[in-house]
Amino acid sequence: MQVLINGETRRFDAPMSVSALLAALELPATKVAVERNLEIVPRSAFAETTLADGDRIEIVHFVGGG
Amino acid sequence: MMPGMTPEQRERYLRHVLLKEVGGQGQQKLLAARALVVGAGGIGAPLIQYLAAAGVGTVGIADDDAVALSNLQRQVIYGTGDIGAAKTARARAAVARLNPDVTVVEHPVRLDDANARAVVAGYDVIVEGVDNFEGRYVLNRACIAARKPLVSAAVGRFEGQLALFKPWAEPGLPCYRCFAPEAPPRDEQINCAEEGVLGPVAGVMGALAAMEVLKEILGIGETLAGRLLIYRGLETATRTVKLPADPECPDCGGIRRG
């Protein structure tokens, strides 16, 4: 499976969930939002959302300043 | 004909009135509107200027800070002589210089769960550019409880994020907590005080937030509700993505189910 993560192509051996992707990227789910094909994935759906070949993923870091 | 506007107002707002989506009636709506700006900092400064210039009749300003020297690289309504003065007072003076049509209400307090709901209840639309996550959660809860639209803008380093939250308005619309369910760990937060911000990033986001406030008051255009705008200054790029409600959200999930 090949997905685009923040503009870079990444290959994975098997289909994976958003949760598994974050684990593979060593990113805690508390720090980021995940955007899949121009739509934010709700955190409660991370485990059940399976990535598909060709997905465009953006990892969005929360900014908190004003 | 624009009944209710003085000759000075007709001239001051002429460029608005020329827009068929605004017109004299739209300008009257702005003059009658009440907007609350929470956070009179880097985002709040241009935001207050644009709301005041546009003739939003009542602008509430909530901030408990004083002007500091390190604010002046981006908080463009303040000057060197304002250092040490309360931001709400100096912001009010800036508005008074700009437009006598605007009444400023100062709220020189930190909004928390105990006081926020009563404050937001007095306004038609709330817009925030606060400098911390906890303040955003406080406002999110208060605006959901009071059924007020919340325009939310945030910056850090070279990036800005903007959204409009009104989960009570229709099914599927998110709140702030649907986007950011919990604050990142303190030492990993991207905020201006610790990570820095290039001044114009705050200006861009303040102006974009003002645009959404005016749209919301006027009821024109395509609403930002249900979407998130991300501005990336170093790439000179923006993208707008869908932002759905999280059905498990502890802050707004209940109102949807109820």
TrEMBL record, chain A:
Listed name of the protein: Sulfur carrier protein
Alphabetized NCBIfam families for the sequence: thiS (TIGR01683)
Pfam family, one: ThiS
Highest taxon of the lineage: Bacteria
Organism whose genome encodes this protein: Amphiplicatus metriothermophilus
UniProtKB/TrEMBL annotation, chain B:
Keyword terms, alphabetized: ATP-binding, Nucleotide-binding, Nucleotidyltransferase, Transferase
GO cellular component terms, A-Z: cytosol
Pfam families for the chain: ThiF (PF00899)
SUPFAM superfamilies xrefs: Activating enzymes of the ubiquitin-like proteins
Domain called THIF-type NAD/FAD binding fold: residue spans: 13-250
Record-linked CDD domains: ThiF_MoeB_HesA_family
Function comment: Catalyzes the adenylation by ATP of the carboxyl group of the C-terminal glycine of sulfur carrier protein MoaD.
UniProt protein name: Molybdopterin-synthase adenylyltransferase
Provenance organism: Amphiplicatus metriothermophilus
Organism ancestry: Bacteria, Pseudomonadati, Pseudomonadota, Alphaproteobacteria, Parvularculales
